[in-house]
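Exercise 7. Given the components listed, write out the predicted structure of the assembled complex. Treat all entries as one system.
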Amino acid sequence: DTAVSQTPKYLVTQMGNDKSIKCEQNLGHDTMYWYKQDSKKFLKIMFSYNNKELIINETVPNRFSPKSPDKAHLNLHINSLELGDSAVYFCASSQGTGTSAETQYFGPGTRLLVL
Amino acid sequence: AQSVTQLDSQVPVFEEAPVELRCNYSSSVSVYLFWYVQYPNQGLQLLLKYLSGSTLVKGINGFEAEFNKSQTSFHLRKPSVHISDTAEYFCAVSETNFGNEKLTFGTGTRLTIIP
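Answer.
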């Protein structure tokens, strides 16, 4: 019944490693997002995809690469992890084309700790 | 570019007392306004949103917010809080103009209900 799900829930890894976070939504939505929430709870958008096409690409290091194999999935791959990448990463989805009025539905988050 | 200021990082309130969480925004164009709630270790969920029309917006769990264009505010209120309202509350803004549809969040207000 989970609407937006993310795996893994927790991720602890060493600096320099490469890791992926997966996101799936079963709401039939067309747009998906990745957000980063830092230790001060500040939430900032990283990417959004509509029907597998990139719409928003904020100023994010190119070590971060989103991939959308279909409109129900948006994965986040991170190369060469750094200490500053430690954060909670949230996936979200919305029904339409990603317009600013849409309600976004968030997943439970992936807590990434880079040692 | 739009921005959001949540003036209080923490608000302690006694159970059954009223509460107001403050939010001010800045934008050069018309905006949509949102309040999201994040319960401990969960993702965000929408409480309410203002798109147009009546400036008083009612949301879930007994919350309401009032859009005040002259004061560029969108404060969240509840007449009587419950222990279960303990959470982090985020105000967010998006611009109505095409081409800048991202949601910008405030830094959050932690609401703690005292029994």
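Discussion: The longest strand of chain B covers residues 87-95. Chain B touches chain A through 23 residues (CB under 8 Å).
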